[in-house]
């Protein structure tokens, strides 16, 4: 049947030995470093860099840069293909456990394939974030990313009302413009201000906001026999609520991801207002580049100075960042989550 054919097409690649994962992972890390440098150049130049500029910034010639990119891209593809079985396993379990699984074989097949496609997105993200030098197997790391993306797919199916793609785009645009206004005004904007910024009426603005809300209650009971929701009632101990399906896979919603991305961008811009030495210390101290915060002693060793010297630089930098003219840039994110 279609599911069997789909599984066979995904799971036909050979498994990798740990040594192979390390070699491939290192190649992917090189690719991520090159792409990171390209993004830095784009921010600096305010346009995409030429291959010559990119090569110069990464100590490559143009031919060697292109060769390295091809080599690393092949390694990334090999790492993904060898672990597609993980996607199949996670997708099958998620669809099987989902309270919204269709009783129709054809519809169930589509749900499974959708979950697999989303899982591949998670697997791809895992290859980009994997550090082979930490010593653990790639599958141990990748499974979390796959589960995260598949869970998002299952949660999307929990909507009673499907939101069109054009509406989702507009909803995301509203969120972005709200953030822009917050930064400009230093406060939460009014509905009139947001509507004007987005070129909408207030009524249309509220319509899009309402469309973004989940229409199923976390308190609704799920009938374990039918997989359908029913109103919560006191004596129904056999039914499970939607909350248990969300609790096990708590991941950011699309709007929360937008918030996170914008906050990260604002933090990067904020840190750039510091002196070069202060920027370096703050980035290392809080792990802004690699997610790995470092101790004052470690940073001191990198710069060849005493720990106390780094502590003073950090204190001075944090004092600057707390100034109202600077802190107002990110204050809106704090108010949203308190």
Which percent bin holds the helix content?
55-70%
Total number of strands: 3
Low-pLDDT windows of residues: 214-220, 224-255
* Topology-level CATH name of the largest domain: Four Helix Bundle (Hemerythrin (Met), subunit A)
The main sheet orders its strands as 2-1-3
Shape: globular
CATH architecture designation of the largest domain: Up-down Bundle
User: Which structural class fits the helix and strand makeup?
Assistant: mainly alpha
Total tally of structural domains: 3
The termini sit apart by 51 Å
Order of helices and strands: HHHHHHHHHHEEEHHHHHH
Determine the number of helices (DSSP H or I, runs of at least 4 residues): 16
Radius of gyration: 24 Å
Q: Could you tell me the strand content as a percent range?
A: under 5%
The largest sheet is: 3 strands, antiparallel
Compute the average pLDDT. Answer: 76
GO biological process, one term: DNA-templated transcription initiation
Region (Disordered): 218-240
Protein name: RNA polymerase sigma-70 domain-containing protein
Organism: Thalassiosira pseudonana
């Amino acid at each position: 049947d279609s599911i069997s054919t789909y599984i066979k097409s995904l799971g036909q690649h050979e498994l990798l030995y740990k040594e192979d994962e390390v070699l491939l992972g290192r190649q992917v890390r090189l690719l991520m470093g090159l792409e990171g440098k390209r993004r830095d150049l784009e921010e600096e130049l305010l346009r995409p860099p030429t291959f010559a500029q990119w090569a110069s910034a990464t100590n490559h010639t143009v031919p060697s840069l292109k060769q390295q990119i091809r080599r690393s891209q092949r390694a990334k593809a090999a790492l993904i293909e060898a672990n597609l079985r993980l996607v199949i396993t996670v997708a099958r379990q998620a669809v099987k456990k989902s309270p919204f699984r269709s009783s129709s074989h054809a519809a169930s097949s589509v749900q499974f394939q959708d979950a697999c496609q989303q899982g591949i997105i998670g697997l791809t993200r895992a290859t980009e974030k994997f550090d082979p030098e930490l010593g653990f197997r790639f599958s141990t790391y990748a499974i979390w990313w796959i589960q995260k993306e598949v869970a998002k797919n299952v949660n999307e199916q929990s909507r009673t009302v499907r939101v069109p793609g054009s509406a989702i785009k507009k909803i995301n645009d509203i969120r972005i413009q709200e953030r822009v206004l917050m930064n400009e005004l230093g406060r939460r904007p009014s509905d009139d201000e947001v509507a004007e910024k987005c070129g909408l009426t207030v009524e249309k603005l509220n319509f899009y906001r309402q469309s973004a809300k989940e229409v199923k209650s976390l308190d609704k009971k799920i009938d374990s026999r039918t997989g359908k929701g029913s109103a919560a009632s006191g004596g129904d101990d056999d039914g499970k609520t939607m909350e248990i399906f969300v609790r096990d896979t708590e991941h950011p919603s699309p709007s929360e991801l937008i918030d996170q991305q914008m906050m990260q961008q604002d933090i990067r811009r904020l840190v750039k207002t510091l002196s070069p030495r202060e920027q370096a210390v703050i980035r290392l101290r809080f792990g802004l580049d690699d997610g790995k915060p470092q101790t004052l002693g470690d940073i001191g060793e990198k710069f060849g100075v005493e720990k106390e010297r780094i502590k003073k630089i950090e204190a001075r930098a944090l004092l600057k960042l707390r100034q109202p003219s600077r802190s107002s840039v990110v204050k809106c994110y704090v108010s949203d989550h308190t």
